[in-house]
TrEMBL record:
Gene that produces this protein: rpoN
Keywords: DNA-binding, DNA-directed RNA polymerase, Nucleotidyltransferase, Sigma factor, Transcription, Transcription regulation, Transferase
PANTHER family noted in UniProt: RNA POLYMERASE SIGMA-54 FACTOR (PTHR32248)
InterPro entries, per the entry: RNA_pol_sigma_54, RNA_pol_sigma_54_core-bd, RNA_pol_sigma_54_DNA-bd, RpoN_core-bd_sf
Biased composition regions of type Basic and acidic residues, renumbered to the chain: 65-79
Keyword Transcription in annotation: yes
Span of domain RNA polymerase sigma factor 54 DNA-binding: 315-473
Name the UniProt record assigns to this protein: RNA polymerase sigma-54 factor
Residue span of region Disordered: 47-79
Segments forming domain RNA polymerase sigma factor 54 core-binding: 114-302
Family: Belongs to the sigma-54 factor family.
Amino acid sequence: MALELRQQLKLSQQLVMTPQLQQAIRLLQLSRLELVETVQQELLENPFLEEGMDEGAASSASEASSRKDESAPEAYDRELSRNADWEDYLGEFASSSRQAQVRETELPEEMTAFEARYSARPSLEGHLMWQLRLSRLTEDQKGIGETIIGNIGSSGYLQASVEDIAEMCGADASEVIPVLHAVQRFDPVGVASRTPQECLLIQIEMLGYDRDRVLVELVRDHLEDLETRRYKPLLRKFKLDMDDLKEYLDIIQSLDPMPGSSFGGSDPMFVSPDVFVYKYDDEFVIVLNDDGLPHLQLSSLYDQSLAGVTGKDKDFVQEKVRSASWLIKSLYQRQRTLYKVVESIIKYQRGFFEDGVTRLRPLILKDIADDISMHESTVSRITTNKFVATPHGVFELKFFFNSALELDDGSQVGSESVKALIKKLIGEENPKEPLSDERIGEILKEQLQVNIARRTVAKYRTAMNIPSSSKRKEVF
């Protein structure tokens, strides 16, 4: 077969995403803080993009410029008379008390930002190292103690064996054990333990309860029986009645099986809502949070830059101007889309905004997309990492989308409403006779007329980190 070259014309359609369209899509899914960082970066990189001045700043700037004509001596005298410390001049004859004067000196400190006066949470390692430095251990023993503290996990347990620590320090295991014994008595008591039994036994020893043989044996050998509530074999073995066993359980439950938990927790996450929803009369008002987001506009240097510019410089200027214009338009479109989505959510979930989570209806992305005539992917992007402040708290926009459960009358109820009712029922139950999953399903049937299986109740309960009825039951 002979090979030959041919030219052929072919007409086809192809969807190409321009960089501007990619930028607009990316802006939709950015959180508020990420959006502020992106805008600030564009302000640095694009010379034809500048931050506009609002009316309040413009008026203050005009007042400042009008005062420039004043003579310096007159301005200085007027400023001196305004800020003169007459209390120091009057001394003891001042009308205000000394306590009030001290209070005035404290005001600047109180007016500073909270973050500026926020002290860092002490770490478990730092807390233990501070006690190690104050202990009576020798310098060699303190070196071993530092190695022990460095191998303690966030929950407070030792994550290395005695032999491993001895090898790290270049010492014998017999030298590590006394230091480990001393560290385990530091605050929090039981830290650096290797097992939960050892942790609880150390706390029992420090409380002076180690003379009770039954208590020590319960912790050392029967923790699993206590956890699974297998009480009858324990009652027969130790010849106890239920009241005596309950006293032992109260002592054990007062101990801390994870001594490092109070230090290992992460700092709370503070959320800045993207939208505020307020109730005014019988209507809900939507306010977008523009705090910290610059008001962008094209720079006044644009007209001057085009004069006498040709070739590649002109192409560069036009490209930057197009980029700035598209960013301004994309930001406006983002805010407009966010407003429309929140407005549609209020329309569908008005019962939630009126009465709370128990009135949350089932909702999917397609419902909102059809209501505002947009694609589901756009709604998904604009509800990602966005938070709204409502009369019932701050929620992520994704929270309002939940699956549906069928009612007997053919209507539907949201799964989040069912979860809220399950949590409420468990919170109000008798701890001595907790509700089983089957009983909770029957109550839901009575109150909501919803047919829900026991395994569905168990799934929702597990998702909310609520233990089963056997583990919630209190001994009486």
